[in-house]
Structure formats: C-alpha cells, structure tokens
Design a protein that fits this description.
2 domains, alpha/beta, TIM Barrel, single chain, 12 helices, two-stranded parallel sheet, DNA polymerase, domain 1, ten-stranded mixed beta sheet
C-alpha cells in the first residue's frame, strides 16, 4: 500500500532558506498532504515558527479557501516567502466539467503528471421540502482493484492510490469552482473511483483534515466511507482515531450470487462481513448503510427479498436500494421499474428501514458505477489484486 506523501521526507530534515532552487524544488511537499499536528511539528522543527502557525494556515486553506500563501495576512512577512519556497500549493487541474440536466456536475481532474480521476457534485432534491442540497463524491484511487463485475471503474484495474493531497485537492478544487454557481456541498461521500479502505492511510489522513476544527470542520455524520467489504480494514477503521459514517456494498443475499458479481466475497463472505459489522461501534442513533445495487435477474428476486431481512437481523442498519445504471458492455440490466418500490415497501414492513437512491447524472456518466476516465476505456490498466 502506498504511504501518504507526509512520509516522503525525514521529519528532522532542515529545509534551509539558503538551499539552491533546484534542491528546494526537489524537497517541496504538498501543503495539503499534512495533518495539522504534522504541519505544526514541521514548521516548529524546520523553521523555528510557533506551532500555532499550523492552525492559522489550516484556517486560510480550508475555512477561507485561500491557497496563495502571500495573501495569508496574519502570517509573518518573514515566514510567508518560506511557505511558498518549501511547500507546494498546487491543486489538481480541471480537465473538463460535464453538466447534467439534473444539476449534477462531473469533474475530470488531472493528478500527478498524467493520471485522471473524477469527482462529482450531486444535486439532490427533497421530495418533501422541494429544497436542494449538494453532495460531493470524491475518488480515492486511480482505478480500482476490487473488480466488481457491474462497475465500470473496476474495468480499469488499479493503477495507484491517490495521495492525501490529491484527495483533499479534489475537495478544494470543487469548492473554488462551485463559487461561480453560488452553491456548496453539505456532505462528502467516498464513493468515487476506487475502494477507500484499500487506500487506508491516505484516506484516513484526508479524513483527519476534513474533520479538523481548524480545517473543513465537517461532522462525521456528513462524511461517508463506502467499502465493498474489506473486513480487516473495517476492523481497523473501527479502532482508529478517525470517525465517519460507514456504507457497505452488499448487493446479494447468497455467497454464490455475491461471489459472481463481487470477487471480494470469495475472501470475505457474507457471514464474515455481517458478523464484523455487528460489532462495529456506532454513535447514538447511527446506522450502517447497506448498499444494494439491484441487478435484473441477478439479485432482485422474491427469494432475495425474503432473505435480506433475515441476514440483517441484529444489525443496526438501513438499506439503500440502488437501481442499476445501465453500463454498455457489462452485461447487466436495470430492474423493472416497480421492483425497487416493492422492495422498499416490503423491507419497511418487516422492520428494515430502506430508501431508494435514484442515481444522478446518468446522461454524463456520473451515476453510481459509471466513473471511468475516457483514456482508461481505451486501455485497461493491469489490476493490482488485493484478493489473493
């Protein structure tokens, strides 16, 4: 597993202002890769600045969205040039923004020298209040190693993990661009390209920045990590010092059918996964989200509907039914129109709270399971397996 970019430099290495330019550039680290405690440690040891500077910098970056150090007015005139000289403030580049007729926007972002990832601003309208809110869907990897058969991202294989700064960079880029639309997201979901818990260290450090009171100051209830069921990582996440809501892709009610569409089930079958979830610590009134992508003739039978409540018995969970988005060439179809509503009614009647998530942005390939860059459609990256 890749380490975050924080670990790329020795913590006790002094960055002298007198270093030649070529060396200084070589030693630059992204400011967005650093949690606040790590930034405080670096600026104290390497620049002899008070640790509270880290709080000031975080507030400029993540509360005021000021990514130009020269304009951080409460930072000393002496230290501001050193910030520019020794830290990289560059953000991912927007290659293209696609606009859906439903108000969703898909961002194609360039990270590193050549890699492309996608982030999506999803417009969701309440059927009760008719008000709208935005949810930001971010990517955690270039491609994905899990290989779910119904997901276009899985056809890419996995090229690499995104670094902390590339994850946080997606958030900042979308914030800065969204100001022209006079709208902002209230929630973040790690449901874009990649399996977030496979890229554990970088994702959890990104969560620390999102949660930091001087950073984005987001509530754990406003951040959701979606996993295909990496059991060891779920256990680690439960014990770690980070907090976010958890969503788990189940998508089947038998091991046979789940293994056919999600190879990860061969290593972590349904019973193992659900037993792990039953011991997962939850906040008061918190529920684990069980995601169930409905595939016609695969997992939407009456027998599946009968089995699902029995499987979830004893688990504090809600079910998110997701009618499949047709992906040309993958061989799956959306369920009949009435089936999700029947499932929702029957699950609710049996004491399993359920909702239907009708995906947004299908006309711009921004819906669930559709995220895959055009370059990757032409040439599949060799997958790095985590299942062997």
């Amino acid at each position: 597993m890749d380490n975050s970019s924080e670990g790329s430099q020795p913590s006790d290495a002094k960055l002298s202002p007198a270093l030649p330019l070529a060396v200084a550039v070589e030693l630059k680290r992204s400011i967005y890769s650093l949690t606040r405690p790590k930034l405080a440690e670096i600026i104290s040891k390497e620049f002899d600045e008070p640790p509270y500077r880290a709080q000031q910098i975080f507030e400029w970056l993540y509360r005021k969205h000021m990514v130009t150090p020269e304009l951080m007015t409460n930072i000393s005139n002496k230290f501001r040039p050193l910030l520019s000289q020794h830290f990289d403030f560059e953000l991912p580049k927007i290659e293209h923004v696609a606009h859906s007729k439903d108000g969703t926007r898909k961002y194609i972002l360039k990270v590193g020298n050549t890699d492309l990832v996608e982030a999506v601003m999803i417009k969701q309208t309440s059927r009760v209040t008719l008000s709208s809110r935005m949810t930001l869907c971010v990517s955690s990897q270039v491609g994905c190693a899990i290989g779910c058969k119904f997901c276009h991202t899985g056809t890419m294989g996995l090229k690499r993990h995104l670094t902390v700064d590339e994850i946080i960079g997606q958030v900042l880029v979308v914030i800065l661009d969204s100001k022209q639309y006079n709208e902002m997201f209230s929630n973040i979901v790690f449901m874009g390209m990649g399996e977030p818990l496979h890229n554990y260290d970088n994702v959890t450090d990104a969560l620390r920045i999102l949660r930091d009171p001087s950073g984005f100051a987001m509530s754990p209830r406003k951040i959701t990590i979606s996993t295909a069921g990496l059991v060891p990582a779920i256990k680690r996440f439960a014990e770690d010092d980070v907090d976010a809501s958890l969503a788990v892709s189940l998508n089947a009610t038998t091991d046979e059918s789940r293994s056919a569409i999600m190879p990860i089930n061969n290593k972590y079958p349904i019973a193992t996964l659900l037993e792990t979830l039953k011991t997962y610590p939850l906040r008061k009134r918190e529920l684990i989200t069980i995601e169930y992508v409905m595939l016609k003739g695969v997992n939407d039978s009456v027998a599946d509907l009968e089995r699902l409540p029995k499987l979830l018995k004893g688990l504090s969970a809600k079910v998110n039914l997701i009618p499949y988005n047709f992906n040309s060439g993958l061989g799956f179809e959306s369920p009949d129109q009435e089936v999700p509503r029947i499932w929702q009614r029957e699950l609710n009647n049996r004491g399993v709270f359920s909702t239907i998530r009708y995906s947004k942005g299908p006309d711009i390939a921004a819906a669930c399971g559709q995220l895959v860059t055009e370059s990757s459609k032409k040439k599949r990256v060799k997958s790095i397996s985590i299942l062997n």
